[in-house]
């Protein structure tokens, strides 16, 4: 078993470059199966979720090559139309193959997807969207079989602006004859990026980033070379690390325009943040002050993926902070571990009240999901003494060698075998 062992109390300072976003890269990798021409993606981080997605692509017959941070996918010839259940379990994003494979082969089978255990995360909106395009779905023993040889564009209204469902429907519709309109679509930057990628391959997607996305199906997509957008959550996590340690950090290749909600909250906490073209510089105050209230919402609201890191900041900020998680019903996995480190927290269903303490102390804790793990790393940076984090496979899903990235910025953090 590997753990992260860290000794808190040093300032995070220096400069870091932000690479492509996990949540942009995953659907784009899935979309690679929609063309039989090679697709090369640039700046892709070496993280477990990407590795699992590449394993899934290989398992269905794609040829995948990685050269540093570039990945080339060739989806030539006949592809298998089923995602092996043992791989689907490792990654919720395996679900992203449903739309693309259905569009390409006319059928797809997938097991119920895994990923973070942060709530019920049903897939009804994905299923309803694919049905609306004319697919038939049957579930048997946890495997969903989806067929549709004669799909046709349709008007689809999402009850909730689900990121994954919007992406899945958008991909299926790109190769489906006729016009599809997605109403109440998710507006996350990663949706815009997926549309841009599809269009670079010859698709006709308009309106991504707005509530209504229109997709005119085309017969065929071609290959492309594409660099997905930088990761706003990795960028936010690093800013939070600098903020909690009284540090000073400059980010390059930062998706500044996609981080407005995060930047506003960090400013509320007393951080001095300067933005430039693709750069963000944060100078933290001696002690953070409470952000008051934080409510997670679909984009452009505050991103749920940054809730746990901000929770860590609140735990040492001056004053009382109120957190309301509206996206996922079970996303406070970090709370009990932060309490173990000395945080003062009251949890009530989707609401948390955090009274900032002067100092956290090191403890043995567990990364129960990806962002909960990030929150513990951030807390450990500011804690007195040694923090040991178990189950770091969760953190590796979304952060490339986090201990190296943070050591370069002044943290005392190591990966250790046990
Ligand atoms: C994506 C992100 C994840 C982020 C989340 C919300 C990826 C790979 N993951 O996850 O990091 O936290 O967006 O910004 O991009 N829902 C349904 N039925 C469905 C689908 C979703 O009820 O068919 C619900 C979910 O249970 C959840 C809410 O909708 O409560 C939001 O989920 P969704 O936007 O779909 O998140 P993901 O795409 O899974």
Structure description:
- The chain has 418 residues and is an alpha/beta fold.
- It has 2 domains: 2-18 and 230-417, Alpha-beta prism (UDP-n-acetylglucosamine1-carboxyvinyl-transferase, Chain); 22-226, Enolpyruvate transferase domain (UDP-n-acetylglucosamine1-carboxyvinyl-transferase, Chain, Alpha-beta prism), CATH 3.65.10.10.
- The protein has 14 helices and 24 strands.
- The chain has helices at 22-31, 48-59, 85-88, 98-105, 124-132, 163-174, 189-200, 232-244, 260-268, 307-314, 333-340, 370-382, 393-396, 402-407, and strands at residues 2-7, 13-17, 39-41, 63-67, 70-74, 82-83, 107-111, 136-140, 143-147, 155-157, 179-183, 204-206, 212-216, 224-226, 248-252, 272-275, 279-283, 293-295, 320-324, 344-348, 351-355, 364-366, 386-390, 412-417.
- The strands form 6 sheets. It has a 4-stranded mixed sheet with strand order 22-23-1-24.
- Strand 16 (272-275) and strand 17 (279-283) form a beta hairpin.
- Helix 1 (22-31) runs parallel beside helix 7 (189-200), helix 5 (124-132) runs parallel beside helix 6 and helix 8 (232-244) runs parallel beside helix 12 (370-382).
- The longest helix has 13 residues, at 232-244.
- The structure holds uridine-diphosphate-N-acetylglucosamine.
- Uridine-diphosphate-N-acetylglucosamine (UD1) binds at residues 23, 26, 92-93, 119-126, 160, 162-165, 186, 190, 304-305, 327-328.
